[in-house]
Amino acid sequence: MFHVKHLSQKDDSMTSSPEISPSLGAHWESLPDDAQEIERVRASFISAYGYEPEGVWSAPGRLNLLGEYIDFLGGTCLPMPLPYRTYIAGSARTDGVLRAASAQMPADTRTVMISDIVPGQLKGWFTYVAGVAWAMNQEGGRDIALPEHFGADLYINSRVPVGGGLSSSAALEASTALALLDLSCPQRENCVEIDRAAQDRSAANDALRARLAQVCINAENTIAGAQTGGLDQSAALRSLPGQALAIDFRDFSIEPLHVAPEQDGLAWLVIDTNTPHELIDGGFAARRAASESASHALGYSFLRRALPEDLSFADVPEREAKAQRANRVDSCTNAAMLALEDAEGTPPDFPRGWVRHAFHDMMLVPRAIYVLKALETTAEPQERQKLYKELGHLLTESFVSMRDELRVSRVEIDETVRLCLEHGALGARIVGGGFGGAVMALMPQELLESTADAIAHLYASCGWAPPRFLPMRAGYAADIAYKRD
Ligand code: ADP
Ligand code: MG
Question: What pLDDT, on the 0 to 100 scale, is given for residue 193?
């Protein structure tokens, strides 16, 4: 009945932490099984629409190792694809109608004529799906713009926590973009195909993925109304399997980096704190606008240009590098605040910490890249330990800046980070835009379960909604899951 043309990449050698047995108290999610998830979304499509879908497409959430609120400033960020993905079953239509339903939004099937989609009209979750169709048509390239009478039926099911800082929105956009691109092929004269998310991706394939990332950014900014900067969409579409991606947002160039803490007995603890955020309620946009106004006051297109090209402090010891970063952050923040005051005639009406955080995180990431590259070439165990310790410190430094300068933390997040550190994490931080969401920690593998138990216990004793713990395994970029013959 169904012939699997492209089974999505799954390689057990990429497992980055051992299978985790459930322990008393902490709720551990199960790692998704692609084949089961594909079958589930296919069956849901059939019960929603009454016929077989043509195929299934999927895209991952991401764990951003470092660099928050800096993609839109031309900073560099370090996302890794998660094993948790959004799956979309779909079929093409020829009447220009887009229908979508989501397992996460039950009893809310939406319908629109693609040609009727305009900014500001649609509301809610469907804006992320319809926005992609709209943005594909804005993009201009005939290979991406949808054929005139093209339409689609889509059914969505996601294993990425929704609103949890792990980028369910970009996973939804990226899987929609791939589904619409593939489904529209038979209605086009020439169709472009996305290769599977292989390790040896061609430059042409990455270039197409980069264009689709721009489509998804436009969809999220213009139709969904969330002013995110491009980190999430680039990670969902352009990541390489099992690698972190250093993305330089001055030009969206990428550099894959090998990150394998399990080789040294370490693992990522990823915690959905069950305190969903709302990025479109203004808190994110106000901080973005503040740091962008600092760029303009200083006369730069990107705030990143106010900093030197090389921020790695290569061969400078950790403590000294930290001191030099702090000096640079201070002097740049002073200059930006003065330039803003000069430009507006009054001191800026936002906290200085918002600008400080931007300089701070823009300086942390290049140092983390330097540390990760040093790990690739250092064999000596003590030296490796030292490098991992510094990586952990960089994570926690970023958290402290998000809590105290950017002020996007909340008590559940603060307490989760505190417990991780008390239980032996090398570093811990918020992932994503904050105001709730997820926490990640770099920990000795053998401490994962006891730390999770302690966190679950604390949440229960405070009467907070229970957190969820997400086992990690290497993920891969947006891909076609399978297509019916
Ligand atoms: P995050 O991307 O960190 O998960 P966002 O606030 O950016 O959080 O995006 C969450 C929003 O994206 C949801 O409120 C919903 O509108 C939409 N969304 C994400 N995943 C799904 C899904 N599986 N089904 C329907 N809507 C979704
Ligand atoms: Mg998002």
Answer: 82
